[in-house]
Amino acid sequence: MQRFTVTIFLAGLVSFTPSFAVLQTADAQTGSESADLPASRTEAFQWLRRARTALVLNHDNEAQPLIVGVIQYGQEKGDDLVFAWGYLLSGEQTFAAGNYRSAVTAYELSLELFSKLKDRQGQTTAQINLGRLHRMLGESAKAIDVLQKAKQAIVEKSQPLQFAGICTDLAECYLELNEPEKAVALFNQALVVYRESKQSSNDGMFRVLLGLARVSLMKNNLESAGTHLDEAGRLVGRSQSPQRTAELHHLRGLVLQQRGELAEARKEYEAALELFTAHELQASSERAAILNNLGVLDQSQGNMDEALKAFEQALQLSREQKDPGSQSRALYNIAAILESQGSASKAIEHYEQALALRRQLDDKAGIIAVLDNLALLYALENQTQKAEAAWSEADQLRKKK
What we know:
The protein is built from 18 helices and no strands. It has helices at 41-56, 60-77, 80-96, 100-117, 120-136, 140-153, 160-176, 180-196, 202-218, 222-233, 242-259, 262-279, 284-300, 304-320, 324-340, 344-361, 364-380, 384-400. The radius of gyration is 24 Å and the shape is globular. The protein has a domain at 1-18 and 32-140: Serine Threonine Protein Phosphatase 5, Tetratricopeptide repeat (Alpha Horseshoe).
């Protein structure tokens, strides 16, 4: 059984720093005791804006002391508003550095403070970013809980694009939980907002169309997937990021591959991989998925060495990302090739690793597929007790489905 991979690109975090004019309030007139800290609330927010600029320009070393200084000012003065915004930006900084758990802690603290202050803008921003971080960590249920609260707080008519963005985030969470009907309803809700809004958001529309294409692929509705991808393709070039364009090439390749148009599918996969290399994109899970599907394509054409190379690269990337789903697919596909080459012991080793991950994910269909293959290999290798156990477990799982 060949296993294709459809992945979901994650939206970036929401960045918002209050402007100087908005927060031109009655500052304390006395300066801070430390020359390393802002002298007033107004100056603290100006430091945050400078830190945001530094982060956008990838000058993390210059952003760090500014953010720390703001947080210390908030602590010394007992200014929860400054403290909250300082931790919100700290979350963005630690996220950019790849410290996702630290970013979660920072956003949780900022959310607690914003909730206490009843600061709606800060609260919603923290919730959206916290929800997106939970998704990145594979915690879709937690993400849904936080994002639903953010959705309830937003007034659709006054903030249509933010509302549509949260609908899209939620839809992608439900897609990861294999609840496509809920995902479709939310994608369509977002699509209506984007089509009717006078404010343009090509990136938001692009995300929704790719999401709907993924649902269509899950349902094996290639015609519908192709229609959504064609519309998304017409948006490319209108400020689309290389990462989004790479995703479009990947999904086009998947549609073509399942139609049997293998040469054209290969071109799409290679175009996606070229974008990853040219722009040094960091979405390793997506790259692993492309390599996995390219490996399946090579395997179907009898190019076993090339297929094995692609699957091994996919496995390495998915291990770096600590993505158990992607790891299990790569291990399964490697095992299938090793089995076809007569390397039964190595195939068993890879199938057993894939099985452990499928159990971790509670992927019953995947568990059954691996157990079936292991039962046969165990039997052929005269490991009768293991073969009987695998056969029996697979049979029991089928009866429960």
